[in-house]
Amino acid sequence: MLKSMIRLRMSSHDAHYGGNLVDGARMLQLFGDVATELLILRDGDEGLFKAYDMVEFMAPVYAGDYIEAVGEIIEEGNSSRKMKFEARKVIAPRPDISDSACDFLEEPIVVCRATGTCVTPKANQRK
After folding, report:
1. pTM to 2 decimal places
2. Nearest CA among 93, 110, 98 for reference residue 19
3. How far apart are the first and last CA of the chain?
4. Three-state DSSP class for 11?
5. Which positions ≥6 away from 45 have C-beta within 8 Å?
6. How far is Cα 113 from Cα 97, in angstroms, rounded to an integer?
7. Strand, coil or helix: what is 100?
8. In the chain, how many H helices and how many E strands?
9. Model pLDDT for residues 39-89, shown as the tens digit of each residue
10. What is the DSSP string of 40-82?
11. Alpha-carbon distance 60 to 21, whole Å?
12. Residue 55: is it exposed, middle or buried by C-beta count within 10 angstroms (0-12/13-18/19+)?
């Protein structure tokens, strides 16, 4: 099955709560971007995200964290594509050392998991 991955740093603009905590909805936005790429790879069209079946927030995300969001198509129908997603923290800032210190985590921290269904209408499928 097809897989996709994006990695980006959470900025101070992503921090929504005290202590530079990033809103969990930001992980869902990343999953939406991964899903869009998967649909383009599979169908040649962005398609539509229909629904999440499950979302599980597992660890906090802060401004300065690098997040790797991965997804894959795990089931296909005529127009539906069931996907699973995982977001992992791979780099964390170390403000206790200095303003610019960071650690690359030897073992990524899973911060969110989800499954959902996307749809690419038959008329829009090019592959």
Report:
1. 0.94
2. 93
3. 15
4. coil
5. 39, 120, 124, 125, 126
6. 31
7. coil
8. 1, 7
9. 999 999 999 999 999 999 999 999 999 999 999 999 999 999 999 999 999
10. HHHHSS--EEEEEEEEEE-S--BTT-EEEEEEEEEEE-SSEEE
11. 7
12. middle
Integer Cα distance of 95 and 99 in angstroms: 5
Question: How many CB atoms neighbour CB 83 within 10 A?
Answer: 25
Going edge to edge, which strands form the sheet with 48-57? 3-9, 66-76, 80-93, 102-119, 48-57
Residue 92 token pair? 């964390």
User: Is the separation of the CB atoms in 27 and 57 below 8 Å?
Assistant: yes
β-pair type (48-57, 80-93) = unpaired
